[in-house]
Amino acid sequence: MCRPVAPTGRAADSKSAGWGFESLRACQIVFRSFVSSGVSPLSLLSRIRKFLRDVWAELKKVVWPDREETVTYTTVVLVTVAIVAVVIWLADTAFGGGIRLIIAR
After folding, report:
1. Cα–Cα distance for residue pair 44/50, rounded to 1 Å
2. For residue 17, with 0-12 CB atoms within 10 Å meaning exposed, 13-18 middle and 19 or more buried, which class applies?
3. Termini Cα distance of the chain
4. Could you give phi then psi for residue 29, rounded to 5 degrees?
5. How much is the pTM?
6. C-alpha dist (Å) from residue 78 to 11, 31, 71, 90
7. Distance CA 103, CA 94 (A)
8. How far is CA 92 from the centre of its chain?
9. Of 91, 89, 71, 93, nearest in space to 81 by CA
10. Which residues make Cβ contacts (< 8 Å) with residue 20, sequence separation at least 6?
11. Predicted pLDDT at 104
């Protein structure tokens, strides 16, 4: 039986909302039913098959890029990574030189 109010009749505190420190009964019921569900291996196998069929059906819906698009996207990514690497290298060199000047004084 779930309790609609705190067990002692006190006002709810901010951490346990008046339920004290014991776990809520609804949570215990859900956990027990999940653990003792008794799923048979056959139904588990059929659920796995259904999942794989659904995945395959979704993969058929995907519009895959052609070779030209793939080359274009790959080139864009590589050029972007190179530019960012150069910017980071320049910033690192500048900050390193600045720190060396500060420490050298």
Report:
1. 10
2. exposed
3. 75
4. -65, -45
5. 0.45
6. 61, 49, 11, 18
7. 14
8. 32
9. 89
10. 6, 7, 8
11. 86
What are the structure tokens assigned to 29, written together? 């019921």
Task: For residue 2, give every residue at least 6 positions away whose Cβ sits within 8 Å of its Cβ, in sequence order, or none.
Answer: 24, 25, 26
Find tokens 């109010």 and name the residue: 5
How confident is the model over 44-93, as pLDDT tens digits?
Answer: 888 899 999 999 999 999 999 999 999 999 999 999 999 999 999 999 99
Structural contact between residues 25 and 1, judged by C-beta atoms closer than 8 angstroms: yes
Give dist(CA 54, CA 61) in Å, integer: 11
Q: Which two tokens stand for residue 32?
A: 């027990």
